[in-house]
C-alpha cells in the first residue's frame, strides 16, 4: 500500500532516513564512490523538507519511499529508494506510477548517477528519456530524464 508520509513527525522521518541509508549505501557501492551526498542527509533534513514523501508499506514495514516536488506543472522525483530487503518486487515501479497518476503535471523529471544502470533501466522502462548529462562538484557524473505527460497536452 502507498500512502503519504508526514516527515515532520520525527518517528516517520527516522523511518524514511533508515530506508534512505540502507538503499543509498547499496547505490554508493554500485557506482563505486566513497562520498555519496544522499548518505549525508540527516533525519532533521528530512523532517524539515518542503518536499512530499510517499511510502510503500509491506506488512506495515516501510519498504520504499518516493520524494517529489511540484512547481509550475513540473513534477520532480527528488529521490526514489527501496529498502534492500525489498529489492526486485516492483516497488519502485509502483511508486513512480503512483506519483505520475496522482499529480497533475505536464512533465516529470528524475536524475541518477550515470553508473546506476538499474535506475536508468527503470526510468527508461517507465517512458523517461535522457535529456542531460553533467558532473556536479561532488564528481559523480549524473544523467537526467524527462517524461512529457501526454494526458495534459492539447489535442
Distance between the first and last residues' Cα: 34 Å
Helices and strands, in N-to-C order?
Answer: EHHEEEHEHEE
Rg measurement, Å: 15 Å
Report the mean per-residue pLDDT as an integer.
Answer: 95
Give, in spatial order, the strands making up the sheet with the most strands: 1-2-3-4-5-7-6
Low-confidence stretches: none
Strand content: 25-35%
Class by alpha and beta content: alpha+beta
How many β-strands, per DSSP?
A: 7
Cα shape: globular
**Helical element count?**
4
Write the layout of secondary structure elements.
Blueprint: E1 2-5, H1 10-30, H2 43-47, E2 52-58, E3 61-71, E4 74-82, H3 91-102, E5 107-113, H4 117-125, E6 129-134, E7 142-148
Parallel strand pairs: 4-5
Antiparallel strand pairs: 1-2, 2-3, 3-4, 5-7, 6-7
Amino acid at each position: 500500500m502507498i500512502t503519504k508520509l508526514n516527515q515532520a513527525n520525527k518517528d516517520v522521518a527516522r523511518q524514511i532516513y533508515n530506508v534512505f541509508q540502507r538503499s543509498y549505501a547499496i547505490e554508493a557501492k554500485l557506482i563505486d564512490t566513497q562520498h555519496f551526498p544522499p548518505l549525508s542527509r540527516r533525519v532533521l533534513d528530512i523532517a524539515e523538507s518542503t518536499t512530499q514523501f510517499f511510502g510503500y508499506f509491506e506488512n506495515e514495514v516501510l519498504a520504499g519511499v518516493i520524494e517529489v516536488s511540484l512547481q509550475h506543472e513540473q513534477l520532480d522525483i527528488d529521490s526514489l529508494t527501496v529498502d534492500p530487503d525489498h529489492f526486485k518486487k516492483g516497488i519502485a515501479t509502483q511508486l513512480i506510477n503512483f506519483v505520475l497518476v496522482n499529480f497533475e503535471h505536464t512533465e516529470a523529471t528524475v536524475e541518477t548517477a550515470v553508473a546506476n544502470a538499474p535506475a536508468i533501466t527503470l526510468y527508461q522502462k517507465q517512458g523517461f528519456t535522457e535529456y542531460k548529462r553533467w558532473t556536479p562538484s561532488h564528481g559523480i557524473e549524473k544523467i537526467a530524464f524527462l517524461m512529457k505527460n501526454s494526458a495534459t497536452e492539447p489535442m
